[in-house]
Amino acid sequence: MMNNNAQFTYQATRISTATKEQLLLITYDIGIKACRTAENALSVKNGKAPDYDLANREIIRAQEVIRELMVTLNKDKAGEMGDKLMQLYEYMYQQLVDANMKKETENIKAVREMLEELKATWENALVQLLHEYQAAHPEDKDLQNAMNEIEGKKTETTSATSAYKAPAPSAQAPKRSFTLAG
Q1: Can you tell me the distance from the alpha carbon of 149 to that of 94, in angstroms, rounded to the nearest whole number?
Q2: Closest Cα to residue 111, out of 127, 130, 129, 94?
Q3: N or C: which end of the chain has fewer CB within 10 A?
């Protein structure tokens, strides 16, 4: 019980102090975890029957995440890219509806993989922007420490979950504005 309270307090603090960009990544994490849990609940392991109730709850949680991503998407700022992202979110949502009706893992897995790819894309974009800022502000030691922490975690995550390698950020890269999240 004490561990659950500590974990809840940590998560609440993490969310309440997060930037918009960090909240977006946290939202993706919640959706990815929900999909993974639903996939596992529907899998038959060691002769154990699928847990349809758990799968249903987690698929609904993943649908809520997709809805949140849709609601917070600022299509006015994002333009055509925002329209395409909205279409992708709508497709993912429908895939989850179908998965919940059929109680099959294929659609859940596909949505999880799309969420993982979107999260990785956002992480790479944010790291690129941080590198650009860091190049312009080399005196900012707090930023340097944060970058070292991010890159350490990113290396662990990347090597553990996929073979995807982001291109090395360049200090000469043009400035970009990522405003898809409201």
Answers
A1: 37
A2: 94
A3: N
- 46-53 — which CB contacts under 8 Å span 24+ positions? 50/103, 52/103
- Identify the band that residue 139 occupies on the pLDDT scale cut at 50, 70 and 90: confident
Place of tokens 């312009």: 136
Tokens coding 142: 């707090």
The 8 Å CB, 24+ separation contacts for 53-56 are: 55/100, 55/103, 56/100
89 in Cβ contact with 81 (< 8 Å): no
- Angle, alpha carbons 172-175-179 (nearest 5°): 150
Q: In terms of pTM, does the model score above 0.85?
A: no
- Provide the 3-class DSSP secondary structure of residue 45: strand
Q: What tens digit of pLDDT does each residue of 91-118 get?
A: 999 999 999 999 999 999 999 999 999 9
Interhelix angle 75-102/52-72, rounded to 10 degrees, is 170
Separation CA 108–CA 126 (nearest Å): 27
